[in-house]
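User: Run a structure prediction on this.
Assistant: Running it now.
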Amino acid sequence: MERTPVNSSNISSIGYDEDTNTLEIEFHNGGVYQYFDVPFAVYDGMMEADSKGQYLAQQIKGHFRYVKV
């Protein structure tokens, strides 16, 4: 999945697959996580958020199934 670099102290890049509604997040420490069944609006909100890490904690973690890739 293609990811876009983002300006964040914690997150390196973010990708989204509209066909499967999969959100992929790469962290600066090298970890990559995929979150499933994420609506496009949530991805869009994360890309627009001033704090990507805060958005992740409030809107994504605990709300969607995920795996570490």
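The chain has a mean pLDDT of 97.
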